[in-house]
Amino acid sequence: MAEVNPAEVSAILRDQLAGVKTAADLEEVGTVLYVGDGIARIYGMSQVQSGELIEFDNGLMGIVLNLEEDNVGAVLLGSSNKVREGDTVKRTGRIAYGTELNPKYHNIAIRRDEKFEKNIINGDAKLIDTYGFPQIDFSISSPPYWDILNRSTGSFKKVRDKKQLDTKYSEHNLDLGNIDDYDEFIKSCAEVYVKMYDILRVGAHIVIIIKNVKKDGKFYPLAWDLAKELSSSYELKDEKIWIQDKIGLAPYGYPFSWTSNILHHYCLILKKV
């Protein structure tokens, strides 16, 4: 396959777009030159900032990493199969920040680009109000589903071991996924969002992706209990249900008892008031 030279393609596109888009348009909107391996090269968006979130035609988001003279490099927050050369990209004006307790996953983010290091902190999310982040307009997160990963057994564990995937969240004693007691987990998880409250702008929204779980035959309404715990700080605005429709049903409990399949997650939408 021939090498793609973004600078050469940019020059061609610049000529083609000169009579179509104004300079002001090109400050806010770009065109995909190349996409592959989770990275997109984009012409335009001359005023975009490193670390800024950008949005593609199909709603997929990306984070700007490299600012070159003739193009912008961005990492895609989703499948690169959804982006095509020639697609339009627009600025959002939003810069992304985050925290990750596990050094392994923090290092994965930094390996994508060292510029992430100033925005993604390797630390405890319960200290989020001490990291010097600016006022935040929107947050999306998915905390551990209690200690469910630590309870990996049977075929699930075998599959993850074969793929060299983790069967524990971490060995860190501050990791929420290592808390055995359910009530303690709910309070500790809620503490993260209570600490986040002070760095959110008034009217900001947060989305928490969470799932109800079962343990030792007992059902735990994790999503509902977390929403209730946060009700003294946030206003619950809505919930959306994310269905894992690619996972097949299993005959749990058959033929001795009825046991449900939990194939959905809750996206809790809360507002700072």
Which terms would index this structure?
single chain, 273 residues, alpha+beta, Elongation Factor Tu (Ef-tu), domain 3, Rossmann fold, 2 domains, four-stranded mixed β-sheet
Question: What does the model show?
Answer:
- The structure is a single chain.
- By secondary structure, the protein is an alpha+beta fold.
- The protein contains six helices and 14 strands.
- It has helices at residues 6-17, 23-28, 103-112, 154-162, 182-197, 222-229, and strands at residues 29-36, 39-44, 52-56, 61-67, 72-76, 88-95, 98-99, 120-121, 136-141, 200-210, 213-215, 218-220, 234-243, 264-272.
- The strands form four sheets. It has a six-stranded antiparallel beta barrel with strand order 1-2-5-4-3-6. A four-stranded mixed β-sheet has the order 9-10-14-13. It has a two-stranded parallel ribbon with strand order 7-8.
- A hairpin with a 2-residue loop joins strand 1 and strand 2 (39-44).
- Helix 5 crosses helix 6.
- The mean pLDDT is 86.
List the helices and strands and how they pair.
Blueprint (H helix, E strand, L loop, with lengths): L5 H12 L5 H6 E8 L2 E6 L7 E5 L4 E7 L4 E5 L11 E8 L2 E2 L3 H10 L7 E2 L14 E6 L12 H9 L19 H16 L2 E11 L2 E3 L2 E3 L1 H8 L4 E10 L20 E9 L1
Parallel strand pairs: 7-8, 9-10
Antiparallel strand pairs: 1-2, 1-6, 2-5, 3-4, 3-6, 4-5, 10-14, 11-12, 13-14
Helix pairs in contact: 5-6
